[in-house]
Amino acid sequence: MGAKGWFILKLLMFQGLFVSRPQEDFDFFYLVLQWPGAYCDTKRACCYPTSGKPAADFGIHGLWPNYNGGSWPSNCDPDSQFDRSQISDLVSSLKKNWPTLSCPSNEGFKFWEHEWEKHGTCSESVMDQHDYFENALKLKEKANLLQILTNSGINPDDGFYSLTKITNAIKNGIGFTPGIECNKDPERNDQLHQIYICVDTSGTEFIECPVLPRGRCPSQLQFSKF
Ligand code: U2P
Fold it and tell me: Whose CA is nearest to atom 4 of ligand 1?
């Protein structure tokens, strides 16, 4: 190779070093959706957002980078602080689809800040802050969970439904097996609390879960009213 060839090769190597995206350091995401009725009847207090009672729909809890072994990274970049100016175009959709229920009542920025700093900063090699929230919103819309469940006769009516029926309805609806997590209401009934859907490292496509969360659900669980 002549001098010119070497020069071009070195230039390409130099570019490769600095331009290519770093390898992501997680294996997949959980999109975690929570049922507000199950959050509110177990917490000693749940507080509606300042904009009012959220719709009776699943709300986003977070988009969590995870490892195939079941553990997960957290708080990966303390230098990347939540910056609400980067998501101003998404705020009305976040209020609707990612409502906060913690007390005292607030608009939601504290919840989104927590999720960005704890989880979002661990997938920054793939998504910046705007993409992180935008992708989570798109995934929630794509999953359309409440519609899938109600189409299968599974309604938030305080009735009891089988874990298999819930799991299969979602599997048929989105094409992949979800993780189902339960908590207990004040009467100690096990109820549907959160649904985990696995997402590829680009944060856009549903995938089969490499590992399912331990859900603590019995064979029959309640779908609480909200
Ligand atoms: O389960 C309790 C809290 O641990 C965090 N969690 C759990 C499972 C998992 O795969 N990844 C993960 O981060 C969640 O913390 P949060 O985002 O709510 O602070 C979960 O609520």
Answer: 72
The fold of 22-223 is Ribonuclease Rh; Chain A (3.90.730)
Q: What are phi and psi of 224, to 5 degrees?
A: -75, 155
Residue 114 annotated as catalytic: no
Summarised one tens digit per residue, pLDDT across range 134-156 is 999 999 999 999 999 999 999 99
Cα angle 198-204-210, degrees, rounded to a multiple of 5: 25
Give CA separation, 48 vs 55, 103, 160, in Å.
11, 8, 26
How far apart, in Å, are the Cα atoms of 126 and each of 116, 132, 138, 188?
A: 13, 9, 16, 41
Q: What is the pTM of this model?
A: 0.89
- For residue 142 the two structure tokens come to 């794509």
